[in-house]
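Intended use. Records like the one below are meant for learning the mapping from a protein sequence to its folded structure. Do not use them to infer anything beyond what is encoded.
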Amino acid sequence: MKKSILIFMCIWLVYDSYAQIRRDYEFYNHRIDSLQTIYSTEHWHEMIHANYFEDSNSTSNEKKKLITKVRKLFEQKEYANLYRYGHRIIYDMWYMSPGKNSPEIKQMLMELYLQYYFYPGTAQIINSYDPDSKSYYTKKAKKRIIEILENKKTKAEYNAYLLCSKSELINPKYLWTEAAQLMKQREDRNERILKQIRDSLLTEHAHQYAQSFFESSQIDPELIKVIGLLDMKECIPVLKQNLQSCIQDDRKEDETKAYRYALAKLGDTEQRQYILDNLIDIWEFTRRNFAYFQDDAMIWKYIEVNYPSDKKVSINSVYSMPASFMTINDVYPYIRNIPKDLEHSTDERDDEIWFAWAKSLYEWLMANKDKIKFDYDGEKEWFWGH
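Structure written out for the chain above:
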């Protein structure tokens, strides 16, 4: 098996080296087939990150054929590696050629992603902060989101986790050791009995692991927030129910926040007020949330709470900036019609100049509070990330 995998790897690498400039349907079709052969093994296999689509010249019809090929990776029931490989291709097709994917292709990829959301190896393609992403969700996708929110899972999804568990557990030394210890209790001791015990342990452990991973697989916080972005008000009762369950579990802080965000976005005044009162701190609330909520009052509350703060905001492991500067820096991209002399200069590399700029812009904001208009496209350039 290892020898055959090595041969396929060599063939694939040779083909790849000659096909770098092509990046067409034939190239990607061959690449998927080659790696599918490598991953068609019961043994756990590390993913080779080599499905980049950034230079793809494939047409929409050709991409549809590739998506059909990916679907078949999920439909097969022999190799857990192929589920993970399928998720990897979806991820690469989504992110590596976003400008070259038609709306129809994006919708097809999203539907496929959501259909196999609970299969092992899911790679996140959800972005709740992009208002344009609303067009990616078809009626079928929204229906599937409701099923995911309600944690509806199938036998097929459990079997996928079981297959995955077996591939990870195959031939582990500790199972042979445990089997040998159990065999000592028997009068009949031979290799056949040892293998039977080991196989029984493999089945038992695989089911335990599969059940554990299957049950712990839940809706991601980012997808929860997408429900608010898509204005899916029919989800409000389940969102509220799930929020109450999360509040009681200290391990689900991110999920709890996501449920509050989604409900607030859907018009829940109680959750909106909770965010304003408790989650508007600069360490809790990032500037991307302004685009998500599109709520002027949140920007003003953000400035009110964080500009006077003496906190520091980490930029990286060794550098931090004052919260006063970062507050204005975060709000800046969303302010419409800023005076020319108060525009952010990304050419400057001097802290004192930046701090002076933030102070001047803050004073202008306060002096013109009744006249300020916000633009949530956030297209202006800014320097520091948060």
